[in-house]
Amino acid sequence: MNKWWLSLRPYSFTASLIPLLLGTVLAGNVGSLDPLGIILTYSAGLTYHIIANVFNSYYDWENECDQPGDDQVVPVLIDPTLGAKALYRAGMLFLGIGVLLTLILGRLYGLTIFIIAVSGLATAYFYTAPPIAYKYRGWSLPAVFISMGVLLTASVYIVQTASWDWRVTWLSLPISFLVAAILHGNEMRDYHGDLSYGSNSLVIATGIPIGVVIYRSLVLIPYILVLCSVVLGILSPLSLIVFLSIRGSLALIALVNQKRFGPIVVSTAKLHAQFGLLYVISLLIT
After folding, report:
1. CA 75 – CA 87 distance, rounded (Å)
2. Which of 103, 134, 145, 201 could bridge across to 180 with cysteines, CB 3.0–4.6 Å?
3. What is the mean pLDDT of residues 209-229?
4. How big is the CA angle at 267 (ends 262 and 269), to the nearest 5 degrees?
5. C-alpha neighbours within 13 Å on the C-beta side of residue 58
6. CATH code, 275
7. Collapsing DSSP states into helix, strand and coil, what is residue 1?
8. 3-state class (DSSP) for residue 56
9. What is the per-residue DSSP string for 119-179?
10. Using alpha carbons only, what angle is made at residue 282 by residues 277 and 284, rounded to the nearest 5 degrees?
11. What DSSP character marks residue 33?
């Protein structure tokens, strides 16, 4: 079971949980919370994330972007009793669960939530699955920024309040930049494998030097946005506690400056979690 658990890439789950927590806290500031809505949105968000992870591992392996011995190859793929077919079947199981959760959300909470849920499900599956496979076309950064940042936060808020507020989008941006940084770090780490396959990821399209500049921006902009929000009165000064995590951001910048891309995916996920928890706590208190 440990092999299966590790093959879901659980270290990355905070990338979904933090936006969900953010949407919950923002909705809680408006009124009382619906427990069923929380259960369904969290279940759907995590299921979509697992779908993206499993099919990404499968198609990167099948397309020979990943090779035996690569750090990112999940344990199920190299287990002789399991292998790619077992991972694909697991992906299809989670895809079925995702479809069911999408239909339930749409039925209970209306057309807007159904559209958001369908877009989340499609973004997760078609990240590497044909015929779209947008990871290999260079579209992944904006897609993940929107789906796992802005829309994931929005989904919880809308389910809970049946309304919308422009501040929800604005306040989700710092988290959206950091989740995009996780993805961008992944593409920098996989640069040579993707290049040999013929993938057209953003890093391949721009080159490593510009890719490094983009990464630096993605892990620094969230702090600038929080500072601006405090100055404009949108956030309380307490939100500046997110700067307690900036040491991690600077350490990651040092790594990419040295072209040491191997550890940055897990480390960027940790930064996202640290920043996100501090951010959510500051909003919960204020």
Report:
1. 10
2. 145
3. 97
4. 120
5. 25
6. 1.10.600
7. coil
8. helix
9. HHHHHHHTTTSTTT-GGGGT-HHHHHHIIIIIHHHHHHHHHHHSS--HHHHHHHHHHHHHH
10. 90
11. -
**Mean of all residue pLDDT scores within the chain:** 93
Alpha carbons 157 and 24: distance in angstroms, whole number:
6
Cis peptide before 131 (omega within 30 of 0): yes
Residue found by looking up tokens 């989008």 in the block: 169
Question: Where is average pLDDT lowest: 17-21, 22-26, 183-187?
Answer: 183-187
Side-chain-side CA neighbours of 217 within 13 Å: the count stands at 7
Which amino acid, one-letter code, is at 254? A
Structurally, the chain folds into a number of domains equal to 1
How far is residue 215's CA from residue 102's CA, in Å, rounded to a whole number? 32
Within the chain, where are the H helices?
Answer: 2-7, 14-28, 35-62, 75-78, 83-109, 111-125, 140-145, 151-161, 166-189, 191-197, 202-206, 208-231, 246-257, 264-285
User: CA of 41: how far to CAs of 19, 70, 144, 242, in Å?
Assistant: 11, 34, 17, 26
The two three-digit tokens of residue 131, written as one number: 């015929």
* Per-residue pLDDT at 121: 97
Domain extent for 264: 2-285
What proportion of the chain, given as a percentage, has pLDDT over 70? 99
Q: Return all residues near 229 (Cβ < 8 A) that are at least 6 apart.
A: 170, 171, 235, 239
What is the predicted pLDDT for the residue at 200?
Answer: 80
Contact 156, 113 (CB under 8 A): no
Which tokens belong to 81? 């009793």
Question: Tokens 């990871």 correspond to what residue?
Answer: 135
